[in-house]
Amino acid sequence: MINSVVLVGRLTRDVEIRKTQNNLSVTSFSIAVNDTTKDADGNKTTSFINCTAWRQSADFLAKYAHKGSLIGVEGKLQQRSYEKRDGTKANVLEVVVNRVTLLESKSTNQARGSNTEPIDEHATFDEQDHSEEKTDDVTSGDLIDDDLPF
Q: Per residue in 114-138, pLDDT tens?
């Protein structure tokens, strides 16, 4: 069975870290992803995808990303259910993040209002190997939202 998700989109709000009882970092966030379809008026549609990042991936996002940051997310789909305060059952479908990549340069990120410390452009945090790496295969000039197939 294959359960793999790759998304590129913009954070819809600043990332906020929570801590579990075992002191693990976790954050829930959503990214806005442009769809290839258009509405009845010919406007592009956008999907808002809920994601959850744990441990170092959550810390990495909170430290270096902010509302509007262009990020790449790799992970898996997970469905879970819970009971709401009113007693009804709710189902949630979300992406559990394994890897996150910042897709904008330092200058673009800072121009958008980031108050975080600088980081190498296109920095990646991979929850699998617990390391940050620089990817050289993409430059910020190569990424234009209108050129992306989604």
A: 444 444 444 565 665 443 333 344 4
102 neighbors 64 (Cβ within 8 angstroms): yes
Q: What is the DSSP string of 85-141?
A: TTS-EEEEEEEEEEEEEE-S-HHHHHHTT--SPP--TTEEEETTTTEEEE--S--GG
CATH code, 57:
2.40.50.140
Number of domains in the chain: 1
Q: Tell me, letter by letter, the H, E, C secondary structure of 33-83.
A: EEEEEECCCCCEEEEEEEEEEEHHHHHHHHHHCCCCCEEEEEEEEEEEEEE
**Predicted model pTM:** 0.69
